[in-house]
Amino acid sequence: MDHSTHMPDGMSWQDLLRHVRALKLQLKKGQSIGSIIAETETHAISSFPDFRETFDAIASDYDLMMHYMLTGMGDPGRSELYSRLILRTYRLLGNIELSLQLQYNPDALSLFEADVKGLDVRDMREKLEGYVSDIALLSLDSQDQQDVKAQQLAERHQQYLSEVFINITGSAQWSHELAADMLSLILSPTVDIIDAQLLVSAIMMGALFVMDAEKVLTLMCIYEQAQSEKLRQRALVGWAFCLDKDGLASLSPVCNKLDNMLLREEVRNDLLELQMQIVYCQNAERDEERIRKEVMPTLLNNQSYEITKFGIREKDDDTLEDILHPDNEERKMEELESGIQKIIDMQRQGADIYFGGFSRMKRFGFFYTLANWFMPFYAEHPQLQHLSADFLDSSYMKKIFEQGPFCDSDKYSFVLGLSSVFNQLPANIREMLKNGEASLGVIGSDEGQTMTPAYYRRLYLQDLYRFFKLNDYRRCFYNPFQKREGHMLLANEIYRSSLHHQAVRMVRFLYQRQMFKEAQALLMPFYDGSSVHDISLRALIAMKQGEYIMAESLYQKAFEIEPSNEHLLKGYAMSAFYSGDFGEAAQLFEQLLDAHPDSRKYKLDLAISYINNDRVDEGVKLLFELNYKFPADVNVKRALACGFLYTGQLGKAVKLYDEIVVDESVSAVDYLNAGYCAWFDRRVEEAAKCFAGYLSRHPGEKDNHAVDALQQSSVLLEKFEDDLLLLTKYGITEVEMRLMTDISVRNLHDGN
Fold this sequence. Notes:
It contains 38 helices and two strands. It is mostly helical. Among the domains are: 13-110, no CATH class; 121-263, no CATH class; 285-308 and 317-476, no CATH class. Strands 1-2 form a two-stranded antiparallel sheet. α1 packs antiparallel against α2, α8 runs parallel beside α10 (213-225) and α9 runs antiparallel to α10 (213-225). The longest helix has 27 residues, at 78-104. It starts with 12 loop residues before the first helix and ends with a helix.
């Protein structure tokens, strides 16, 4: 192979690769074939003369089409011929892209160490079906002969599968005939289901390496026709990921096939569930962090065993602790059960709770083979046969194999990792494992959740996520899990005419998971500006993103369409409040209060709106009423204290803030306002301590522990400027604001 970095025309292979990909994209966007043909000949054909014959045939057929057009002759088949020319040109460009990758890309050269062989489907069928037949014939031999021959057959077969996986992944653009033969092979009942699943993954990886319309169409057909649910779910993930790559569905055969499939609600809902499960995979690290910080400390603190140099032993009972706190043991058990239940609930919802642990167990030699990352788990895998038979045949391991919570990749990691210590375990523990009486802390799957399409799809997605996150060869392929700005699989324009209902459900799912940016990005392509539901959903997301003026405008629009909708009225009022439109907010809260005259919340919101709209006396009057009825309500105290500040009743404000700052619900703003009270009362030192408390609880401080003094000063000074009218009312000068800022920041750092 020529590994030089430049093509005959002087262009680097990387530039040529980008150029070819751009031509493919232009072709799919509707650019005229003539210009694509000209660019292809100028830059690509000179570098790859093997494609000259194919190129000349396309160019000649296109010239003939233009000639007939010039003669004015009608041609009823012109549109179909043009579509076929597009496909032929696309296939040519795809093969040029593949040749560039295989000859010049260092990552691909490392992956495909030997030249990729052409696909002989007849030979593949013969070998795959022959393996099944040979295994069946073993029953005619003695037991000893069966074991030896089975091992030999399995090793040869596994080696062959690894070669086939590579050849499919690196195969040239498929013809329609080759695709039909592969479909027939994979759906054949005489091919082992494990082999068929691996072939489906190979087709997907091939299309993610260099996009191929026929490979994607094959995956679509498998999804529609396969009897095995495991095959169907692998195929679904495959074609959905491939269509996400670069708008392949604009090619007419794929587009037509997809449009037909999307007529079925089952397909639309499968895509929705797939998108949800992808999000769970993408958030694996976040979920791992949540378990580490929120759950594991509880589990570790309440465990009854400890590790010593002599092994694992039960902790000594603390008799004195039992006497002083007799309920502690029950409390610890409840906390332990609660922690475990959190993990179970996360797993049941779809969270990838095992990624963190198993991500460190992918360095076994087993994973040096590309195909093994996608191999369905089976205990007879040749690379597991060196393990103890007692271990592999134990009831515990069989349960893990059959319905355990691990994806296939993690099952291989689990077996390889645990096998190394199995024989070192105490004899009684080994016996318990063999009989299935021990769990080693593995949280299993609910029986009702296994053997379902969602279960198969989830575990397969986790397999793929591990590859695209951990494998060194992942750079060769388009990564469907990569988080691009606000990107969702369902946001692809190919789904916009069919998946509005599913997209809206997905938006709500993202909203619940506090993924507001993603929710906004997904909603907009499907957004119906005349739909109250869509308008209010967009407004709700805007509120969560702090875009209050936008939210107010949207709620106003929705409320004008449905003026009797109280939920819209409430959203409108709150968005007006947070956007600073307190006059409008007061009017809206008055309407809500008319409908719910006993509502504490609406009275409180109305009172604060009055105060901020220079109707201070009316606001304070309402707050007095609330404080009388609900003396323990801290929110009422906050609002009343703020009212006292604005009305010049400093002593009363101080008294209330003294109560608020010792409450367990104390917030950053409470410290800010308490600081104002002390400052206005000329207790400067106390004020500085309160402002330091505000800074230490400020969101920016929590999110970034490296916030420096300059940034902290800016935060506090900006807040002083926001409250300039109040500070001026109490005679605070600009110089005093700057001095107080520096004193407070110094106080904060001295305190730390």
